[in-house]
Amino acid sequence: MKAGKELENYVQFVYQKLLDFMDEGAMVSSNVSVIGKSGVKHEFDVYYEFQHLNMRHRIAIECKDWNTPVSKGEVGEFLSKLNDLNNISGMMVAKSGYQEGAKQFAESNGIHLMETKDLPSLGEIVAGVIKEAFLPDEATQGAPFWTLMEIQSGEITGTYFSLPEGKPIVPFFYSKVIAEKMREKLLDAENWVVRGVSQYQLKGFVAQMEVLGVEAAVFYVPYWKEGETDVPMVIIPKEKLKEEYIY
């Protein structure tokens, strides 16, 4: 198998892991041809789409398994293909990075750039081109959980707060108020916000657990006691999250 093909297959694998539990018409494919508005057929190394809130999201990915950085011209060629399509986001994944001009051009045209070393970090992927679909905002209601997520420059990054006890443990709460009380106890509380975890986002979290190497725990606190320091929690195996909390 050619090295370039291996990269395409790996990118497809990473995104399929992310979407495994998204039952809203998710599809991930490699070497896909799409007809543009001009009638011209465009080929993409990896392509995926999914439905969310009655909207279709489409992302095209170009993989560059080169020993030299990607140039501005290569990014421009990719942009020309995207511009011939409707409602599609673009991403490039490169083995050897990008020239400075390519980075500036991509940023100004909304193309998300990644390197192969970034691929295992699904948290970063979520925070990238599809964050509006998978990350909860202020209006998201917990179904049934609430949790803490990192915030930078007013936006959540896709990183869940975790307890540094051996294997990272991501805490979930049944109460938004109690989650907020726990946040206030953190030394770096300003770096975290409380967010509701919808069923859609819970499925995404479960899909990430194996790759991120984290566990989930529910904090059982019927009501908050001032001065509380030892809050009971129970680890929930991934299989039980899927069987008993996703519906």
From TrEMBL:
SUPFAM superfamilies xref list: Restriction endonuclease-like
One example of a Gene Ontology biological process annotation: DNA restriction-modification system
One GO molecular-function entry: endonuclease activity
Domain Restriction endonuclease type IV Mrr: residue ranges: 31-119
Name of this chain's protein: Restriction endonuclease type IV Mrr domain-containing protein
